């Protein structure tokens, strides 16, 4: 639909940027921090490990001042559970929580709203070894950890995210099961996921009780799935995968019940989780206040052949759809360009995704991740990332169109504020507005996109147009 006039971004729009603890902090065992599953990532030619990351732990003051210079209204980051509670439970690590005190206070001092993710892929290793999310005790441990944070940051943190990309952890468990850990079966993953739903609902309840002024929600990886053609069988395949990959997760969180198609799928595959008495009541009675949307790229799929060839051979990550026997096959889409890492660049898909999420759930939406990973080059002290500027120009414009469509979009936190360790490609793949020079003591260099984004925020997005 075309509009003669676009709705302006609201005056309190949360122009932000995102990171996660294990991807930026470094200091992986400093000041009493316990190990998380992410600390097991091994070095190889592409993947540096996460032990040093962007060394935000030692650079946070300068980094937050750069956020201020950028004009950020919000900073979405995660707290490392094992920095606060080294084994995931038991005694509080005072120095660990003090680090987050300093971060939160400095953000507030600079009028930057902290948006805190409780758990972003970095389960404390001890908890994982005791059974991880498969063990129902982890639900209680997560609740205790959240209680500590809610009580501690009361009045300071008003936006909370429960679990980052629960759906990516089910569909691409490699991100959270580095070498040295046993990869669970699919059935176990679905049980873990069910336990996470219960944990998120309990924490949502706690947040509402302890922090009546705060808002809390999930942050799944959501993307519209296109059918390869108007062949009705392709349409069914797209519906299958969009439901199984995306809506299942939000339907449980928001409506308090499993999507019927997703449930039929789980039954057919023999992976339906065991639901314990009281689980669905807790979930149903504790709905999120908003939905965090991590959007990178749409995907295109075709009808299943169901002949043993539906799963493609190429290696997958969270945006590459591999196909699933009897459910869907991955397909090409010649209308859409892609990044050098094979992720589709689909700004219009962002508008479609936001419209679909909003019309299904009618809750305010916060874009908690979106961005382009690239092999940025530092030359003569500069990073000329015009491709990133063009990416965000197009995506911000489509977000404004979604706003005009009526979507209640409260903010946009691109991934990422600063270069950080990519989940799959280490430091080769950079996302930040700020470059981290790994060869010179992690020094920071503002990229061209930093200055461009600064103007966007300053003008509250009033000069945007798609390229
Ligand atoms: C999301 C994760 C982030 C981040 C991002 C980019 O799925 O929530 O933690 O990693 O994807 O992905 P990658 O690092 O694999 O390029």
TrEMBL record:
<dbReference type="GO" id="GO:0008422">
    <property type="term" value="F:beta-glucosidase activity"/>
</dbReference>
<keyword id="KW-0378">Hydrolase</keyword>
<comment type="similarity">
    <text>Belongs to the glycosyl hydrolase 1 family.</text>
</comment>
<dbReference type="InterPro" id="IPR033132">
    <property type="entry name" value="GH_1_N_CS"/>
</dbReference>
<dbReference type="Pfam" id="PF00232">
    <property type="entry name" value="Glyco_hydro_1"/>
</dbReference>
<dbReference type="InterPro" id="IPR001360">
    <property type="entry name" value="Glyco_hydro_1"/>
</dbReference>
<dbReference type="GO" id="GO:0016052">
    <property type="term" value="P:carbohydrate catabolic process"/>
</dbReference>
<dbReference type="GO" id="GO:0005829">
    <property type="term" value="C:cytosol"/>
</dbReference>
<dbReference type="InterPro" id="IPR018120">
    <property type="entry name" value="Glyco_hydro_1_AS"/>
</dbReference>
<dbReference type="InterPro" id="IPR017853">
    <property type="entry name" value="GH"/>
</dbReference>
<protein>
    <submittedName>
        <fullName>Glycoside hydrolase family 1 protein</fullName>
    </submittedName>
</protein>
<feature type="active site" description="Nucleophile">
    <location>
        <position position="369"/>
    </location>
</feature>
<keyword id="KW-0326">Glycosidase</keyword>
């Amino acid at each position: 639909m075309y509009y003669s006039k676009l709705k302006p971004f609201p005056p309190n729009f949360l122009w932000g940027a995102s990171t996660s603890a294990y991807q930026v902090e470094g200091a992986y065992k400093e000041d009493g921090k316990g190990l998380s599953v992410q600390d097991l990532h091994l070095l190889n030619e592409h993947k540096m490990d996460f032990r040093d990351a962007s060394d935000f732990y030692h650079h946070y003051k300068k980094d937050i001042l750069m956020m201020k210079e950028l004009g950020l209204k919000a900073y979405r980051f995660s707290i490392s559970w094992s920095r606060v509670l080294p084994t995931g439970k038991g005694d509080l690590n005072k120095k660990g929580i003090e680090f987050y005190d300093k971060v939160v206070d400095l953000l507030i001092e600079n009028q930057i709203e902290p948006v805190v993710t409780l758990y972003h892929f970095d389960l404390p290793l001890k908890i994982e070894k005791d059974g991880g999310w498969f063990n129902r005790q982890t639900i209680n441990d997560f609740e205790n950890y959240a209680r500590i944070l809610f009580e501690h940051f009361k009045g300071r943190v008003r936006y909370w995210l429960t679990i980052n990309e629960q759906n990516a952890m089910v569909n691409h468990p490699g991100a959270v099961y580095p070498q040295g850990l046993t990869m669970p079966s699919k059935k176990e993953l679905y049980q873990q996921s069910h336990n996470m739903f219960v944990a998120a609902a309990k924490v949502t309840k706690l947040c509402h009780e302890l922090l009546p002024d705060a808002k809390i929600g999930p942050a799944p990886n959501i993307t519209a799935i296109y059918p390869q053609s108007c062949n009705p069988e392709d349409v069914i395949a797209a519906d299958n995968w969009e439901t199984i990959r995306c809506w299942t997760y939000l339907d449980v969180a928001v409506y308090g019940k499993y999507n019927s198609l997703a449930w039929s799928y789980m039954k057919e595959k023999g992976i339906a989780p065991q639901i314990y008495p009281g689980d669905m009541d807790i979930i149903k009675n504790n709905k999120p206040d908003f939905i965090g949307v991590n959007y990178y790229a749409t995907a295109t799929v075709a009808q299943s052949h169901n002949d043993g060839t539906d799963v493609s051979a190429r290696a997958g990550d969270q945006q590459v759809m591999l196909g699933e026997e009897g459910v869907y096959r991955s397909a090409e889409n010649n209308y859409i360009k892609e990044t050098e890492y094979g992720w589709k660049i689909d700004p219009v898909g962002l508008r479609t995704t936001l419209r679909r999420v909003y019309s299904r759930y009618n809750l305010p939406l916060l874009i908690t991740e979106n961005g382009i990973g690239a092999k940025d080059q530092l030359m003569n002290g500069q990073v000329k990332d015009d491709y990133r500027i063009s990416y965000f120009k197009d995506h911000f414009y489509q977000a404004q169109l979604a706003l005009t469509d009526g979507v209640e979009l409260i903010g946009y936190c691109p991934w990422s504020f600063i270069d950080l360790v990519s989940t799959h490609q280490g430091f080769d793949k950079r996302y930040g507005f700020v470059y981290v020079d790994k060869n010179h003591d992690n020094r920071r260099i503002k990229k061209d996109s930093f200055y461009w984004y600064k103007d966007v925020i300053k003008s509250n997005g009033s000069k945007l147009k798609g390229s």
